[in-house]
Amino acid sequence: MSTIIPDIETLKTVVKINAAIPYESVSPYINDALDIYIEPQVGNVIIDIASTGEDTTLKDKILRCLGPLTLALATDELGISFGDSGITVQNEQGKRSPANEAKIAAAKVSLFYRGMQALDRLLDYLERNKLKYPNYADHISITNQVSCFIRSAQEYQDIGLVNIDYSTLTYRTMLPTIRQLQERHVREMLTDDLYNRLLAMTDQDAKFKILQEYVIRYLANKSAELYTSQTSRQERTGSGTPEYQPILRPVYQDSTETGNFFAQQADYYSGKINSFLNANAEDLGVNKPSTAINFNSKEKKVFTSIS
Fold first, then answer.
1. Stretch 249-261: mean pLDDT
2. Mind listing the pLDDT tens digit for each residue in 280-293?
3. Mean of pLDDT over the chain
4. Structure confidence at residue 78 (pLDDT)
5. What integer pLDDT is reported at residue 258 of this predicted model?
6. Is residue 176 part of a domain?
7. Domain range spanning residue 210?
8. For residue 238, what pLDDT is reported?
9. Three-state secondary structure readout of the chain
10. What CA–CA distance (Å, rounded) separates 277 from 271?
């Protein structure tokens, strides 16, 4: 039994639910919601602290996201019964009848949205109080061992210049994509040595800082492009499973289903990175790429003797 939601009366404080429903019917979904959505974000120690009930502020914030997420998981199953006759539903005259599929789907989306928004506020609270919750800080350091040019939601917005409402959950949702982009795209733009130096962020030279900002803006806009593209969204939601939708503003409709406003910005900053490298190659410790077309070589067989 969860001590955060020990009974139906507690669950009723954050979601609309019939008090006649047995607690045993929703208890499995409470534990699943904790394991699937909340514990990976905050760590098991924070869950344990909230479960004691001594930190009422923390417990209340977890309760506000746990309740809706619990019902979002339970929605598809609460109205059906499993028995000898297979899967059945109640259909008694004069009593409430099961909601249609459209209303069930709408309720599920609403519950999921409410729960994830509350989870985002919980993360914001913990981020602002890391000194009070050192176990949360330890959990984040363990789960984020791979370095990233964009280290926080604030950097994503203030330096990357993409509005995500400073949402920690949005930043973490996109973090694997950002890391893939920096490894696949940024590393190829830079030399390995320059890439590692920029990633470590140890150089205080003004030109290194400018290049770091260009890289961060490229990564922010490129990841925003992928998450707002109609094509990528169709691929992510093809299974019909609800997903957390990162907060990205402004949101522009795709003109060709593959590109959008953020794509234009990503291309712009990619060009800025290459131009800056060419103009400051010596100061950055890289070789300036040659723009000459080398036709006169035996390998290309141009302007060479045929004898």
1. 56
2. 988 888 877 555 55
3. 83
4. 73
5. 47
6. yes
7. 147-284
8. 47
9. CCCCCCCHHHHHCCCCCCCCCCHHHHHHHHHHHHHHHHHHHHCHHHHHHHHHCCCHHHHHHHHHHHHHHHHHHHHHHHCCEEECCEEECCCCCCCCCCCCHHHHHHHHHHHHHHHHHHHHHHHHHHHHCCCCCHHHHHHHHHHCCCCCCCCCHHHHHHCCCCECCCCHHHHHHHHHHHHHHHHHHHHHHCCHHHHHHHHHCCCCCHHHHHHHHHHHHHHHHHHHHHHHCHHHHHHHCCCCCCCCCCCCECCCCCCCCCCCHHHHHHHHHHHHHHHHHHHCHHHHCCCCCCCCCCCCCCCCCCCCCCC
10. 10
295 pLDDT above the threshold of 60 = no
135 and 151, same domain (yes or no): no
In this structure, are 25 and 117 located in the same domain?
A: yes
Tokens 């004898």 found at: 307
Cα radius of gyration rounded to whole Å, the chain: 26
pLDDT in tens, 297-306: 555 555 555 5
**CA 183/CA 259 separation, integer angstroms:** 22
pLDDT at position 214 is 96
Q: Could you tell me if residue 55 is inside a domain?
A: yes
Sign of CA dihedral 227, 230, 235, 236: positive
- When divided into structural domains, the chain yields a total of 2
> Is omega for the bond preceding 246 within 30 degrees of 0, making it cis?
no
Check pLDDT > 80 for residue 200: yes
